[in-house]
Every structure is written in C-alpha cells, then in structure tokens.
Amino acid sequence: MLKNILGISALAFFSNFALADGNKFDGPYAGIHIGYDTSYANGTAYDEVSYPSGYTFSNSSLGSTVFGGFVGFNKVLTNNVLVGIEADYEFQDADKTSSELDGGEPDDNFSVKSKAGDAASFRAKLGYVFNENRTLAYLTAGYAIEKLKNTYIDTVEEPTLTSTSSNWYKGWTVGAGGEHFVYDNLAIKAEFRYTDDDNQVDSVYSSTYKVNFQPNKSVRIGVAYHF
Question: How many Å apart are CA 97 and CA 129, to the nearest integer?
Fold first, then answer.
C-alpha cells in the first residue's frame, strides 16, 4: 500500500495532467496539531557472546499527548484528485517503568524505564476534494522516525546502578485523514496514523538489549493555513 501511494503521487506530479484553477487546497500550507499517541517497547537481553540471557522487559501502553507542527504542498488536478507532500515534527513525553523479567518472572531488583521522545515524518498524500472545494479526504504514507530512551536500573548495587541508551527508531507510516475549510484560508484537519519502526540495540553493562519499539498508533487534530 505504501509503494502504491508514493508511486501514484510521484506519477501525478510528473505527468502532464492539467491542474485545477483556483482551488483553495492548491499550493503551500503550514499549521499546528495536537493529538494522542500510543505504542509499546519491549526487549530481549543477550550476553557477551550473543546468547539470550533470559532477561526481557515489556513496557506496554506508552501513551502520551503529542504537540507539533507541519508544512506541506498540494496540487489539485482538474478531476479534483489531490497529490501532495507533507513533513511534520512533534514532541511527546510518554514514559513507563516495569520490572525486568527473568525467565518470564518479575525480578524486582532490576527495572527498565522507557521514555518516548520527539518524532518526525515525511509523507506523500493522495486525496479527493469535494463539497464545493472546501473538504478534502486523503491517504498518506512515507518515512517516519521516533526517539526512545531506555534507562536500565539495578537496585542490587549500592548506590543504585543505571545505564541509559537513547536511539532514533526509523520506519514507515501510513494513515488517513480529512481537512475542511472553516474560514478563508484557514482549515481544520483530523488524521489517524499507524507507524512501524525498526529495532535498535542498547548496551547495558556487560550485555546488550535488542529493543523493539512498535507499533505506534496515533490520532491528531490540527489547524492549517493555506497560503
């Protein structure tokens, strides 16, 4: 689906299709959004020779309010099909702490705090304009990146030992949304997105943790100004 959306958008940009004249959605725009994001982080520990050590962790339901901004550019064709590109950057502050699991059983001497941080995406859009050129429904897909910091806490030692790893997790995102003009060049929008990220490796004392940070489901509402 991701390849299809990107391919159709690129084809429309570089084809000889005629552009719609004077459509409100045509051209550059910028705005702000607020929303809610939820995901999970889990990991598996490996020893110095890359064998599973039996330790794992799972921090589910990393939910957080997100706030950010976006910029984009649209082209509307004569058949009311819209193609475009959009980039966004947002801030979040979700965190959760849980005990590590040793063979599936909680070990209260060791815990992991997962903290989700900033996120960004660069996406293609494909949509349809209707309602006398005041309303847009669209699909969107593209590249996404999110930050996750894990703090590994060992309370056996005195004082308590901690080891922190912070990584950017890269992946893809796909979603759908709608936008509607409420006044001159001002529009409101709503969007749902699903993001799938890659895995990263944290170095923890004399071992490593392979960390999985996904899936990420989010909803956003925003205000856009079309120039």
Answer: 45
